[in-house]
Amino acid sequence: MSAGRGRFITFEGIDGSGKSTQARLLADKLRADGADVVLTREPGGSDGAEEIRQLLVEGEPGRWSPETEILLFTAARRDHLERVIEPALAAGKTVISDRFADSTRVYQGATRGDLTEVVNALHTLMIGREPDLTLIIDMDPDTALARGLSRGSGEDRFEDFGAGFQKALRNGFLSLAQTSDRFVVIDGNREVASVAKDVARVVRPL
C-alpha cells in the first residue's frame, strides 16, 4: 500500500453467516471513530454491477453454468472496482465490502467446478487487487442456510443449491483461509455483539 491510500477490508462466508451484518456494524463503528468509510457489496456496489447482481442471485439454481457465472461476476467486479473501490482507496477512505474475489474463488472456482485456474487467471487479468484484510465469518451451514432462506429476499439462488452445497462452501472458505495471512476466521456461531467485538479487535491494528 502506498502512503495516503485507504484500507480495503472484505467480509466472506457462506450464505446466512451474518457477514453482511458484521460489515455494517464495523462500518458504523469506524465512522463513529471518525473514519471515512465506504460500505459496499458484491455482486453489486455500482450501478452496472447491481444490474448484473439481479442476473446472478435471482432465478433457478441451474440458470447459469459455473463458467458463465465467473464471467458475470468478473464483469460486475470490474465495474465495482473502477467506479467505487479504487476511487475511494485513492482518496484515503476505508472500503468495507461484503464479498469480493474470494467468493468467486470458492463458489465457482472450487465448489461449482474445478475452475480455480480460470478464476485466478481472470482475476489477474481484469481485477489485480486483493484486500488488505479478509474476515471470514464461519458458521454452521445448516443454521446459516435456515437463516438465509427465512429472509425471503428473492435472492435465494445459491441457497437453493441446498445444504450440501453450503457445507462444501464452508470447507472451501476454511481451506482458502490457510493460503494467506490476510485471512482471519471469526466464529459466527455466537451472538452478534460477541462476533462484532472480535471483528473490531482484529481490525484495530490495521
How much beta, percentage-wise? Answer: 5-15%
Counting structural domains, the number is 1
N to C succession of SSEs: EHEHHEHHEHHEH
CATH topology: Rossmann fold
SS content category: alpha/beta
Strand sequence of the main sheet, in spatial order? 2-3-1-4-5
Low-confidence stretches: none
Mean pLDDT: 91
Binned, the helix content reads 40-55%
| End-to-end C-alpha gap | 12 Å
* Total E-strand runs: 5
Tell me the overall shape. globular
CATH superfamily: P-loop containing nucleotide triphosphate hydrolases
Q: How would you explain this protein's 3D organization?
A:
With 206 residues, this protein is of the alpha/beta class. The protein has a single domain, classed as Rossmann fold, CATH 3.40.50. It is built from 8 helices and 5 strands, in the order E-H-E-H-H-E-H-H-E-H-H-E-H. The protein has a 5-stranded parallel sheet, with helices on both faces. It is globular, with a radius of gyration of 16 Å.
Fill in the keyword field for this structure:
206 residues; five-stranded parallel sheet; alpha/beta; Rossmann fold
Outline of this structure?
By secondary structure, this protein is of the alpha/beta class.
Write the layout of secondary structure elements.
Elements (H helix, E strand, L loop, with lengths): L7 E5 L6 H14 L4 E5 L5 H11 L8 H25 L3 E5 L2 H11 L4 H11 L6 E6 L2 H10 L12 H14 L6 E5 L4 H12 L3
Parallel strand pairs: 1-3, 1-4, 2-3, 4-5
Helix pairs in contact: 1-8, 2-3, 3-4, 3-5, 4-5, 4-7
